[in-house]
Design a protein that fits this description.
alpha+beta, 10 helices, single chain
């Protein structure tokens, strides 16, 4: 009987404040959708870093005749065979090095033509202007400094380049997008909490006569407060459910279908459905608990029982 009364009171409260309840549901849905998106975007950045950092190399570029006048490191002329052999021998001794591949100037020129053959500068580049290099695969990509410090100042070396730096701007952009999503999410959560508090206050005021009678007949404070708390929790759960639908739809239409980013950007390793599914229970839990706690705190002030 008590449970039936509480559920009936929840329905009455939601109907009486239908407009404000709708506003709570929408604001919770948007804030939690941003919350889930921020978590997924952070996971996407980590996935991309792990995917690309495992594939990028450290490159030791050697001096050629064209570099003698343009690069201070190559003032003594082009690299010699003895210098390259000495560097290769030292690389083989390093524990952090997994394998080393030599790229000749002809191979570098061919790769350049494959990637930038349509550019205006491609026609002015000749094979002898391309640098020979060692492409070094590290066991741990974060150990780049070991190679850089050992070989950057060696005779015949024009530059030691960590290819991770080429991806740094991309990851920085994604991190900034994630930070912006978190900031907007925080603002939306504040708006949602304010709406929840106001909804509870209005609901408590509109039912002050009923709660006064319940108090007179000996109802406990928890029993009187429970319908209001459950109303907020139900509204929050509806918003969280809508947020989950938005996250699933976003993953489906943006990556798999619709925009089909997975097909258009095959070089990006997008997060899978398993990552999305792991976020959904957390979104539902936050959507259920956050309004309930906010309502409980608000009732201590607005519902004197």
């Amino acid at each position: 009987m008590r449970a039936q009364f509480i559920f009936s009171e929840i329905g009455v409260g939601l109907r009486r404040n239908l407009t404000m309840t709708f506003a709570v549901v929408v604001s919770v849905a948007l804030s939690l959708a941003l919350f889930g998106s921020a978590l997924l975007l952070n996971k996407q950045v980590d996935t991309m870093k792990g995917y690309w950092y495992d594939k990028v190399n450290v490159s030791i570029f050697f001096c050629n005749k064209a570099d003698q006048e343009t690069s201070p490191n190559c003032s003594k002329g082009a690299v010699t065979k003895e210098q390259k052999d000495a560097i290769k021998a030292d690389l083989d001794k390093l524990d952090v090095v997994e394998n080393v591949q030599f790229e000749s100037s002809q191979e570098a020129y061919r790769h350049y033509k494959e990637q930038f053959g349509d550019s205006l500068m491609a026609g002015s580049i000749t094979p002898d202007q391309m640098q020979e290099s060692y492409r070094i695969k590290l066991k741990d990509p974060t150990k780049y400094e070991v190679v850089s410090s050992a070989f950057a100042d060696r005779p015949g070396v024009q530059e030691v380049q960590d290819q991770r730096n080429l991806l740094k701007n991309l990851f920085e952009l994604l991190r900034n997008m994630n930070a912006a999503a978190v900031f907007i999410m925080a603002l939306m959560l504040v708006v949602a909490l304010m709406l929840i508090v106001n909804t509870v206050r209005v609901s408590a005021f509109s039912r002050r006569r009923e709660t006064g009678i319940m108090r007179l007949v000996g109802a406990s404070s928890f029993y009187i407060q429970m319908p209001f708390i459950m109303e907020a929790a139900v509204a929050g759960l509806l918003g969280a459910s809508l947020a989950c639908v938005m996250l699933v739809a976003g993953r489906y239409f943006m990556i798999d279908h619709g925009m089909s980013l997975a097909e258009k950007l095959p070089l990006i390793n997008f997060i899978g459905w398993d990552q999305v599914i792991r976020v959904l229970p957390l979104v539902l839990a936050v959507g259920l608990l956050m309004p309930a706690v906010a309502a409980f705190v608000a009732l201590r002030k607005y519902l004197k029982v």
